[in-house]
């Protein structure tokens, strides 16, 4: 995966965190710089941490599934992407409130980064991927988008929350399909 593909991966993964950050900003009386930094830091850190864990777990099992690694990567990315789309289309309450305490932010940060764990496993099966470049792009992208989401949450509200999650899901599915088609010799 090249820089642009990894950047797209980071954008796709960050859409859940972006949507939650928009809701955090919306829930505040006034979303300030502190709200943006807190959201960006929590979500960016966990989105960067989880692929590292997944990557090293994937490396442990890589030899056992080498013949089907592209199918595993495609399956994991598609599963995560379809789940994001499904959650975006479900009716329900907002994912966030105005609480920025560790007690409130930790579960949100972990919940929005579980998909990054699965992506880390798929990165372990992809040839020529620098995990550290991927992690840096994923973490920085998520930090920036989450901070921006919190900052503009009060302005745009929930109008773009579902669209952002759908965009993220579609992006992950397309990246999985690209990995599959490249390994099958189609691309």
Task: Describe this entry's structure for a reader.
The chain has 187 residues and is an all-alpha fold. The protein is 79% helix and 0% strand. The protein is elongated, with a radius of gyration of 16 Å.
Which key phrases capture this entry?
single chain, 187 residues, mainly alpha, 6 helices, 0% strand
| Average pLDDT for all residues | 81
Main sheet makeup: none
Oligomer: single chain
How much helical structure, as a percent, in the residues?
A: over 70%
- The number of E-state strands comes to 0
Identify the overall geometry.
Answer: elongated
Please compute the radius of gyration using only Cα atoms.
Answer: 16 Å
Task: Give the termini separation.
Answer: 13 Å
Note the total helix count: 6
Show unreliable segments.
Answer: none
Along the chain, the helix and strand elements come as: HHHHHH
| Structural classification | mainly alpha
Q: What share of the residues does DSSP label as strand, in percent?
A: under 5%
Topology of helices and strands:
Blueprint: H1 3-27, H2 33-61, H3 69-89, H4 102-124, H5 131-156, H6 161-183
Short description:
The chain is mainly α and 187 residues long. The chain contains six helices and no strands.
């Amino acid at each position: 995966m090249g820089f642009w593909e990894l950047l797209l991966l980071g954008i796709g993964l960050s859409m859940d965190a972006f949507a939650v950050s928009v809701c955090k900003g919306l829930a505040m009386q006034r979303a300030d710089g502190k709200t943006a930094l807190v959201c960006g830091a929590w979500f960016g850190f966990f989105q960067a941490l989880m692929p590292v864990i997944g990557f090293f777990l994937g490396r442990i099992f890589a030899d056992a599934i080498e013949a089907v690694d592209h199918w595993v990567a495609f399956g994991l990315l598609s599963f995560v992407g379809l789940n994001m789309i499904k959650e975006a289309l479900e009716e329900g309450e907002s994912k966030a409130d105005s609480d920025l305490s560790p007690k409130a932010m930790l579960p949100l940060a972990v919940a929005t980064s579980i998909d990054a764990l699965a992506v880390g496993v798929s990165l372990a099966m992809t040839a020529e991927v620098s995990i550290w470049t991927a992690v840096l792009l994923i973490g920085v992208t998520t930090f920036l988008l989450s901070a921006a989401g919190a900052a503009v949450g009060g302005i745009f509200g929930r109008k773009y929350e579902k669209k952002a999650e759908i965009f993220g899901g579609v992006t992950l599915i397309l990246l999985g399909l690209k990995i599959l088609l490249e390994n099958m010799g189609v691309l």
